[in-house]
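Troubleshooting log. The previous structure file for this entry was overwritten by mistake, so regenerating from the original sequence record. Sequence copied from the archived sheet and checked twice against the printout by T.R.
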Amino acid sequence: MSVQTPSSPASNAGQPLAFVSAQALRERMHEAVNDTHLRQSFRGAMDFLMAKRAVQFPDPEELDSLRVLSEHIRQYSLSKLPDLLEQLETSLVRNGVQVHWAETPDEANAIMLEIARRHAAKLIVKGKSMVSEEIEFNHAMEAAGIGALESDMGEYIVQLAGEKPSHIIMPAIHQTKQQIAKLFAEHIPGVEYTDNVDALIQIGRRVLREKFEEADIGLSGVNFAVAETGTLCLVENEGNGRMCTTVPKVHIAITGIEKVVEKLEHVAPLFSILTRSATGQAVSTYFNMITGPRRSTDQDGPEEVHLVLLDNGRSQAYADEQLRKTLQCIRCGACMNHCPVYTRIGGHAYGTTYPGPIGKIISPHMMGLEQTHLLPTASSLCGACGEVCPVKIPIPELLIRLRGEAQSAPRADPAMVGQGAAYDPKISLLWKMWAGLYSRPSTYRAFSWLATRFRALTPARQRGWTAARTPLKPAPRRLRDMLKDRT
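Regenerated output below.
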């Protein structure tokens, strides 16, 4: 594994939305906050998900013990990651799975494009996969003249709308039934407008059912990859993942290198806490365990199975003991559901594949701090994300660390690409002066005395502080002086 420089993202209208500029990020956040309907929709949805999660964990002690166990499993797996990846490859090859390694999104897309061309594929039908979103798989295939169709209902909706998922578990949570009805009427031939939810679901299912039969290749993500047995585990609710991995003749799975665990017994606790944290379900509708292509005794299944293991900045996080904790994530989305910032602005305002708290700490590794240094600052540091994380990722601590990496002076041996991207010598000098004033009692007393006497000179505009707050102004009298008067 090695560290690589992220490729340049596209952000023009109609193009893959990999990231938006810093200024556009601010603009999107303002637009989202001023969108009353969006705020109400997200507030209601997040409250609903938080309530469902709470019902699944009535016993605080059981929740805490399961979180501790899950954290230990993920940390244990990461501590042995290079060895487990080699063991996983050996086990998969023994099972008849072809394993591919990709350092960058371009490499991953090239690998899968080569497989598609070898099979003269015209249509690829996809189960839910955030990693495929991460590498802009759909756009890469379409550019090569190969169709890529989302079969998860939420992903299918945002694909029709030309959007990115706004939530990693519920991609179309920002869409109303009226908006979805309009999309279906405009994009699906022979479909008339209806905002009946059951009818919309049946329309989507009918279209997708036909595509499963036509598809040459099925693509899926991976929730857990078991090194000991060479098993690919896939968690889902709609059955589209099972269809994608069994109906087409070729199945391609793609996952980040961090998803590996050592033993099958390690999956059970993670699966239990994943479903309850994500959607408030005791268990998901489907749990798929894939061990290889169709055997002579099997009734169905693909003739060929491939696994693409993607790095894309994960090795950079892995190299640092503190930042490595980012890779513990099991993609449940609980941090988003409880985040006051995400609840108010939604997923699209972030402009990255992974929104919310997890996106703020993982996107800088995938894209570099030059483009993402504002993401860690879009947080109140209330700590809710860390409190609900099922694998106990210390997200607030990592946000502070990333802020420091972005603001500190550039170093010759940076811990991550783009370190020092937000460094400003003037700001650095001001903080050094502040530290000098507040670290010595004599200078602090002198400064506070002067500040109260000359408080009328306090500037009305104080850079970013007064963008959303009233100006800071010294009090007419120091606390020290008032206490003296009382004694």
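The longest strand covers residues 250-256. Archived copy saved in two places this time.
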